[in-house]
Amino acid sequence: MFSSDTIRNLNRDCFCFPLDRALIDNVFSDSVPDAASQCLSRPNLFARTGVLLDSNDVNTITRVIEALEFLIQSEQYVVDKVDRNPALKRWQTVSGDGLIMSYDFHINESGPKLIEVNTNAGGAFLVNELQSVSESIYPPCCGFGPLELNRERIHTLLQQEWQSAGREGLPKTAVIVDDSPLEQYLYPDMLIARDYFEQSGVKTLIADIGELEFVDGVLSYRGEAIDFVYNRSTDFALQGDSSKAARAAALCSAAVVSPNPLHHALYAAKSNFIDWTDSDKLLRYGLSVEQCALLQSHLPETRLLSIDNAEELFANRKHLFFKPVDGYGSKAVYRGDKITARVWRQLLDAVKSETGYIAQAIAPPTLRAVDAASDQRRLKYDLRIYTVSGEPLIAAARIYQGQTTNFRTDGGGLAPVYGWSNDKNNELNNCHTYLSVG
Question: At what angle do helices 21-31 and 124-137 cross, to 10 degrees?
């Protein structure tokens, strides 16, 4: 088995595991034709290579997820969240596990670092298809094979979420919603999700969340009654005008809406990292000393920006990311060493107006060697683990250049993840010259 250092060096230096985009598109055209036509117009949707992952890192990632899932089941943790935001109280009786979510990691010299949790994570359905494609067009080598978690459950997600909400069987109709879904970069992912749901016998539509209507106790879209809403919108609290129908239907149990605001608050609020890296709070929530040490080792230290600590955090800004508490993706996120005096004043103004910002220790990503269309280059990547009910389903990497993932980088995009397969029959192929490194 290779060391973690060797695998990290392989990722950085070996232009191996190439993926042919034309072959991917051809296979997609047969398996998911509706999505395939959309994928063709997104040149940087799929990366030109896969990412290698050490089995020790897989084990660490699994333990971090297990510890956080244990934490979030703590009654005291939920009480504290609701006490801070009483608007969440009415959501405590709204059931459901949240359908599909993700834990996002950087992998560096100190091992995996959790950088974000998403309750409406996109890409899982695309990645499931991509993994099937990568298995058929690029066989494992060097002892690595496609990282298998529990991807067969992808096809039964809707049934499981429906039943976790106390319903029997399956919904009759479902709708996948976002803001202007046709304009979303991951619209092909929604098309594949629709196909999966319909293969289970559930009529499934894709709609702008603002087009839903709730009249006389029935949620509908263009006259079609809706039982289940898969919410891909970034109105996590369902407080906007466009979300009012979905919100009303969920609160009176006329439809299941996943994820709902409480689910997001418990898992994905940026400020959660403050509690998750506070050993006193972790012990209060029932975690063991070992679990506390695990989270403190693999989560970046996080503090709430305030007027009282602003001077200290500004002095240490080169080692910090500043993120809005209620933000998503990379919107209004600032790397400390890039902050200008003008931007810093904006952050302090936001704090004064009770729009919170967190200051989070930078967890730098490592690099992946990529044979891009124009040249050979080394790009950053993060690792996304998709889960349902706390159980890992499938892994993907997102390869990119710049401050955050962006799907705009030549050679970058979604990538399959290859783990150590321990298959002694595999040949070293084009990786062999790098195996002594590290």
Answer: 110
Q: Are 237 and 263 in contact (CB under 8 A)?
A: no
Token output for 119: 């309750």
Q: Do the domain assignments include residue 264?
A: no
pLDDT of residue 199: 93
Domain with 159 in it: 152-258
| Chain segment 336-373, per-residue pLDDT in tens | 998 988 999 989 988 887 678 999 999 999 999 999 87
Chain segment 141-152, per-residue pLDDT in tens: 667 888 888 888
Same domain, 138 and 55: yes
Whole-angstrom distance, CA of residue 324 vs CA of residue 243 = 22
CA torsion sign, 247 to 213 to 243 to 329? positive
Catalogue the long-range contacts made by 339-348 (C-beta closer than 8 Å, 24 or more residues apart). Answer: 344/314, 347/305, 347/322, 348/307, 348/310
Q: Which residues contact 38 (CB under 8 A, 6 or more apart)?
A: 187, 188, 191
DSSP line for 267-332: HT-TTHHHHHT-HHHHHHTT--HHHHHHHHHHS--EEE--TTTHHHHHHTGGGEEEEETT--TTTT
Alpha carbons 218 and 225: distance in angstroms, whole number: 7
pLDDT tens digit string along 407-433? 989 999 999 999 875 544 444 444 544
Contact 262, 91 (CB under 8 A): yes
DSSP code for 366? -
Whether this prediction's pTM lies above 0.85 is answered by: yes
Domain boundary among 211, 235, 258: 258
Q: Is residue 266 part of a domain?
A: no
**Domains in the chain: how many in total?**
3
DSSP at 338 = G
Domain-terminating residue out of 258, 280, 312? 258
Residues 19 and 114 in one domain: yes
Residue-wise pLDDT tens digits, 266-282: 999 999 999 999 999 99
- Whether 265 is in a domain gets the answer no
